[in-house]
Specification:
The chain is of the alpha/beta class and 319 residues long. Helix content is 32%, strand content 24%. It has a single domain, classed as Rossmann fold (3-Layer(aba) Sandwich). The protein has helices spanning 53-60, 83-92, 110-121, 126-139, 156-168, 186-203, 214-220, 238-243, 248-255, 295-299; strands at residues 3-16, 25-38, 42-46, 68-73, 76-77, 93-96, 174-178, 206-211, 223-228, 231-237, 305-308, 311-313.
Length: 319
């Protein structure tokens, strides 16, 4: 199994100013991130809100431009390609947004929403576009008649199916799923997740699955990276993270997951709030909330330690 996405030392800073004459400060949304996504995998990015997960996904797709670092897609570096040369890769890399209510144009018919990408990337006749839209709608569990309706005529789950169809109609290889079920009811979530698994098998897709829901990660993922304040704190296979987690932040996230029907209570919650990304803590960025923090954590940033093949942890005390 080859590497489809190879990210090296990726950074994304957002400049903020109090006024035109003030000195700029920078929000370090993604800070020196390095990881690889194997072809055919479901690579989950997990963490609290504000940890930089969505920014990372959008930066990899170059929907927002990286500050520095390297993005390699299928052996080709795409970090500095101009818009004309990026068109080929945009067709192969698509995204499903978190909010199905705002991600679809409210004044366009479903056939126009789904067919827009076909008009941009392929020279297809109108009848060919129609057949392709009909085919992809049926694959996501909708009917031909639905292409003549507007987004407001659908439920949340149906809208997300339309968003999935819009992404898949171009037949991409790589899909960023940005919390695709967080705005849906639990029963609808289960059906959409099952659909995503089925579509992955059918089209041989690779997923980058962004979520804060570890129960969804357990169901979907093959590999997991845990993000905090723009940095990856631990990464490995799903079994590494769920059975052999080493970083205090990962352990705290796992302890926060409630279990239905077992009577098990939430054991611990990370203390305090996630710090301001414009003024991150010195040393280890998690030390202000870590129960194991010592003086070295405030003074020195930890390195990535390989605990076992493919399982890495960024903590002074996980060696």
């Amino acid at each position: 199994m080859g590497i489809l996405i190879d990210v090296k030392n990726l950074k994304k800073y957002f400049e903020i100013r109090r006024s035109l004459l003030s000195k700029p400060t920078y929000v370090r949304a993604v800070e020196d991130v390095t990881f690889q996504i194997p072809e055919g995998s479901i690579y989950a990015i997990v963490g609290e809100s504000g940890s930089g997960k969505s920014t990372l996904g959008r930066t990899i797709l170059r929907l927002i431009e990286p500050t520095s670092g390297t993005i390699i897609y299928n052996g080709q570096e795409i970090t500095r390609l101009d818009n004309k040369r990026m068109i080929e890769y945009r067709r192969q890399m698509q995204i499903v947004q978190q909010d199905p209510y705002n991600s679809l144009h409210p004044r366009k018919l479903v056939k126009e929403i789904i067919g827009e990408g076909l008009k941009i990337h392929f020279k297809m006749r109108p009848d060919e576009i129609y057949l392709r839209i009909k085919e992809i709608l049926e694959m996501v569990g909708l009917r031909e008649e639905h292409m003549f309706r507007y987004p407001h005529e659908f439920s949340g789950g149906q809208r997300q199916r339309i968003a999935i169809a819009r992404a898949l109609v171009l037949r991409p290889k790589f899909l960023v799923l940005d919390e695709p079920t967080s705005a849906l009811d639990v029963s609808v979530q289960a059906r959409v997740l099952a659909l995503l698994k089925e579509l992955r098998e059918r089209f041989s897709l690779t997923y980058m699955f962004i979520t804060h829901n570890l129960a969804v990660v357990d169901y979907m993922a093959t590999q997991v990276a845990v993000m905090y304040l723009g940095k990856i704190m631990e990464l490995g296979s799903k079994d590494d993270i769920f059975q052999r987690a080493a970083h205090p932040y990962t352990l705290a996230l796992l302890d926060c997951v409630p279990s239905v029907g077992t009577g098990r209570k939430i054991r611990s919650v990370p203390r305090g709030e996630i710090p301001n990304p414009a003024k991150p803590p010195s040393g280890c960025v998690f030390h202000t909330r870590c129960p194991k923090a010592q003086k070295i954590c405030q003074e020195k940033e930890p390195e990535f330690y390989e605990l076992s093949p493919g399982h890495f942890c960024k903590c002074h005390f996980c060696k």
